[in-house]
Amino acid sequence: MTDAISIESLLNYVQSLEQQISELRHEVHHPSASDATVVPVAHAVNRAIGAPARDGSVAALTEQFIEQLSSMGPIQPLLQDDSINDILINGPDSIYVERSGKLERTDITFPNDSEVLAVAEQIAKTVGRAINPSRPLVDARLLDGSRVNIIAPPLAVDGTSISIRKFAKRGLTLDIMKEQGNVSQQLGEFLKIIGKCKLNVMVSGGTGSGKTTLLNAISQFIDHKERVVTIEDAAELRLQQPHVVRLETKPVTYGQFREEEVSMRDLVKNALRMRPDRILVGEVRGAEAFDMMQAMNTGHEGSLTTIHANHPRDCLSRLENMIGMANLGLPTRSIRSQISSAINVIIQISRMRDGHRRVTYVSEIIGMEQDIITMQDLFVYNILGEENGKLKGEFKWTGIMPRFLRRVAYYGEQDRLASCLGVRLPKL
Ligand SMILES: Nc1ncnc2c1ncn2[C@@H]1O[C@H](COP(=O)(O)OP(=O)(O)OP(=O)(O)O)[C@@H](O)[C@H]1O
Ligand SMILES: [Mg+2]
Q1: What is the pTM of this model?
Q2: How many C-alpha atoms does 40 have within 13 Å on its Cβ side?
Q3: pLDDT tens-digit profile of 363-391?
Q4: Does a structural domain hold residue 321?
Q5: Three-state DSSP class for 108?
Q6: How far apart are CA 387 and CA 244, in angstroms?
Q7: Closest protein CA for atom 9 of ligand 1
């Protein structure tokens, strides 16, 4: 996806060149327009969007690019508005945005569905894809990290649907999350220790609950000496470490030749041959869960991933189902015992009804009792009331000492843990 163009650079470009665009348009259409007059701008346009040279007159090309750059249509102001996270276009008359954790309908509309499709096609084109009439689905990452999904009729019954998850310019750290009340001071410190001690962690939550953002924040505590391999469908993680290899899956594409899919599973297997110190999988949602568990059980400690689930228990049953998708015919007990020995901690995050995101559980997996995986909650969030539409509650340490104390000691974090929990740690 190296020839992708980001929405942000598109916007910056359109803004900074607005004047030039109108002048150039004038020149291009002027009877005396010649390649000589438009060549410099055409080259600038080419450079700005990183487009490869193509056939055709420079004037024609320039006009085409200008059209592309200025045709984000009515959603342009939404793209520019930093307080908006998500833009959801459900056909021409129904456009929603997510602002401060809450969905709201905008009064913006498109004249008709073809205009929505035109914007969708333009976005697809900028990442080198086309909305194929036989498979009108595009899932893409723009260069600035924004994520876009397009689904057009006949699959989308009421018109072309575009879902944009804008890249958050401000990277959220655990310290910012403390200030925002996503975690308490104590819980924030606890999560830092989890990141440092190379525990295998699943961040679990509903859609848009902030899983990837939290995973990113925890990853900031990975030692800079470690070699990290990240695997994602659309590369969203922004690791600060110097030694990171980013891998991204690839769907089947139909161009001149049919290009095969490269799945999450292929990449997890491949990552194991790359001598990783840690493997970060953006989200597990299928058979790759099996390879991820294998990796966690075979010395790739400190692996982190996210999963769609509404409760830590639910996360375990989802994992079990996903491992089932690998079709290995493993008995339930052996799947569960793999899960229980692979994962140390499940961190549950929720976007609550007041629009705020909070870490609601930190649960530790401690083993098996007969066929059941046993867990203990180390932290829970208790709702105590509501004030002016905002929930009031507390993030509470349950008083249970984590079983991963040895590992905390091994990584020299015991004093920090003792002061975080405000207790003396038991002798090991
Ligand atoms: N703690 C937070 N405070 C403010 N905004 C947040 C927070 N966490 C996430 N967001 C914003 O919410 C949106 C969704 O976040 P994120 O991508 O992390 O969620 P997710 O659970 O991984 O979503 P998905 O289910 O689509 O994978 C993003 O735009 C992000 O910037
Ligand atoms: Mg995510």
Answers
A1: 0.80
A2: 4
A3: 999 999 999 999 999 999 999 999 988 99
A4: yes
A5: coil
A6: 44
A7: 210
The boundaries of the domain holding residue 64 are: 7-69
Question: Residue 246 — very low, low, confident or very high, per pLDDT cuts 50/70/90?
Answer: very high
Which pLDDT tens digit goes with each residue over 321-334?
999 888 888 999 99
Under DSSP, the state recorded for 168 is P
Same domain, residue pair 240 and 149: no
User: What DSSP designation does 74 have?
Assistant: G
Check: CB of residue 360 under 8 Å from CB of residue 205. Answer: no
Give the number of whichever ligand sits closest to the CA of residue 350: 1
Asked whether residue 196 is assigned to any structural domain, the reply reads yes
- Asked if residue 326 lies in contact with residue 334, where contact means CB atoms within 8 angstroms, the answer is no
Helices (H), 30-112: 35-49, 58-69, 76-80
Report the atom number in ligand 1 closest to the C-alpha of 213: 18
Query: Where among 144, 165, 186 does a domain terminate?
Result: 165
Instruction: Say how far apart CA 94 and CA 147 lie, in whole Å.
Output: 20
At which residue do the structure tokens 């996360």 appear?
Answer: 315
How many Å lie between the centroid of ligand 1 and the Cα of residue 216?
A: 11
Name the one residue in this structure whose structure tokens are 């499709």. 117
Domain count, the chain: 3
Same domain for 191 and 158: no
Atom of ligand 1 nearest to the CA of 205: 21
Return d(Cα 207, Cα 85) in angstroms, integer: 13
Provide residues with CB under 6 Å of ligand 1: 85, 165, 168, 172, 177, 180, 182, 205, 207-213, 283, 306, 357
Q: What is the DSSP letter of 366?
A: E
